[in-house]
Amino acid sequence: MDIKLSAAGRRFNQEWIFRDISYTFAGGQKYAILGPNGSGKSTLLSLILGNLSPSEGEVSYSADGIAIPEAEWYRQSSFAAPYLDLVEEFTLQETIAFHFKFKDLIPGLNLRAVLDLLGLSRSEDKALKYFSSGMKQRTKLALACCTDAPLLLLDEPTSNLDVQGVSWYQDLIAQFAAKKMVIIGSNQENEYKFCDHHLQISDYK
Ligand SMILES: Nc1ncnc2c1ncn2[C@@H]1O[C@H](COP(=O)(O)OP(=O)(O)OP(=O)(O)O)[C@@H](O)[C@H]1O
């Protein structure tokens, strides 16, 4: 699958966040979207996901040269971000089961394996509202990485993670992201050092 941005730009009110991005994200490749706080990384990720429309230009998805309709884009991707809300009343077990009612698991995995991978099995019956911010972030990353989709999109993946959490994240990527297109919004090198392609938002101001 490829994702193509053609002269894409986005503004909020009168302020342009970025303009004239023409770029193709190719299947299986690893990309980092880089820039300081407030530069527009999350906004660009939302455009790529189809959660926000461009104010000018176009975003398109295709597979083997055939366009994928926008209504189908969400099936192609899995996404994790610190600002993405989980259902606080659900236990960890319920959260995992709920997510995989809507998304497919990577073949060979099951719900128990996702729980084991998280290293939080003692908290499987605990409601997420009692989870620390780092435990919630691990949960979001595991759900996204274990989803069988060609695109993995992560915004600030190691926010709220401690040193062990960062190393756990790096193992997760090595284990589950090898064949996927991965796009990371980041300003911390330990989150994106496996990415071969870097896109600087400041080049599109
Ligand atoms: N819904 C919105 N309405 C108005 N302005 C917005 C909206 N969403 C984002 N912005 C503005 O767009 C700019 C880019 O924000 P964005 O969150 O994309 O940056 P970022 O690079 O992801 O930042 P950070 O590294 O802090 O997460 C900021 O100036 C922000 O205030």
From TrEMBL:
SUPFAM superfamilies: P-loop containing nucleoside triphosphate hydrolases. Residues 3-205 form the ABC transporter domain. GO terms for molecular function: ATP binding; ATP hydrolysis activity. Keywords: ATP-binding, Nucleotide-binding, Transport. InterPro entries: AAA+_ATPase, ABC_transporter-like_ATP-bd, ABC_Transporter_VariousFunc, P-loop_NTPase. SMART domains: AAA. It comes from Pedobacter antarcticus 4BY. This is ABC transporter ATP-binding protein.
